Amino acid sequence: MDTSDSTLQFDGRGWCQYCCNYHESIRPNWHPDERGLKEIMPVIEKIKREGKGRDHDCIIGISGGLDSSYVTYIAKEKFGLRPLMFHCDTGWNSDLGVSNIQKMIEGLHLDLVTEVVNWEEMKDLQRAFFRSQVAFQDQPQDLALFSALYNFAAKNGFKYVITGGNNSTECVRESLEWTYYSTDMVHVRDIHQKFGERPLKTFPTCDILKYRIYYRWMKGMRVIKLLDSVPYIKQDAIRTLSEKFGWQPYPQKHYESRFTRFYESFWTPKKFGYDKRRAYLSSEILTGQLTRDQALERLSKPELPEDVMAQEFEFVATKLGWTVAEFEEIFRGKNKTFRDYKNNLFLITLGTRIFNLLGLDNRIFR
Fold first, then answer.
1. Going from the N-terminus, what domains does the chain have, and what CATH number goes with each?
2. Mean of the pLDDT values across residues 182-204?
3. Which of the 8 DSSP states describes residue 224?
4. CA dihedral 170, 74, 226, 31 (to 10 degrees)
């Protein structure tokens, strides 16, 4: 990490908040070993027991990325769970992402449900966010992916949602300056009201209060980060999935989405000066999967060649209904932050701190 994250501070050792938090809060409470296995087994047995008589005892959202693919493999093969696989199609799936999903479903003999987001509504919300000039342009897609899964789970009586969230590759969470809360519906509605052109009648939404309170305490839904209870080394996981299923890796985390690939490799670094690879690679450094020198070497050059990024710029512009010239005009517009629009930051921050105090999430959100 560097000062492109303007909120970053360093102590006398040269450690930033992320390093301190990892060693003080995350590492002491994270057990991807025999202890973690022993602690998770009562939960696994409860899932199986309560799932008797049902076709599936839990649900997993799959994108085709490494985290969701590997947790699917672990859930089925290591723990013997019977997950229903759920995929939300926002219109931006890469061919490789689709292929990897299919390989996991067929290889593990699983059932898949796909929810397709209304493209005109998806497009309208994304156009509104681009016009707003905020940094986190992936918020509409993140909101749809998250909301579709949890709404489907609640509607169909799934008590256990297995996610690919993990400490091994995600212990460093980008600052809110880079990546604001996807489920702040006050923020989303304000931007859409100002810049949207059509109502979002069917677009999946689930704000953080509904997820944290109603679904958790009223519906009894539990979210389980299974990968935190087993060894999860990125390169080992890639090798396993490749050998067993023919799964193919991506150049970078989240590149199973063609939009996310464009947003993270072009829009964010070129327009805002944020390279989200810094957070991803920092997680791998802290968890011993990468050296700092190796990470700096990766950061010394762009993930995608300039000609490929130019092609992607044209592709995204056209898909969203703009000419290249119109999209370039937006690109040159004045940058803004989530603070320039209505938001629910106070309540979300309060809830996050409560979860931190309860030990339900040890990452820091800044």
1. 17-357 (3.40.50.620)
2. 97
3. E
4. -80
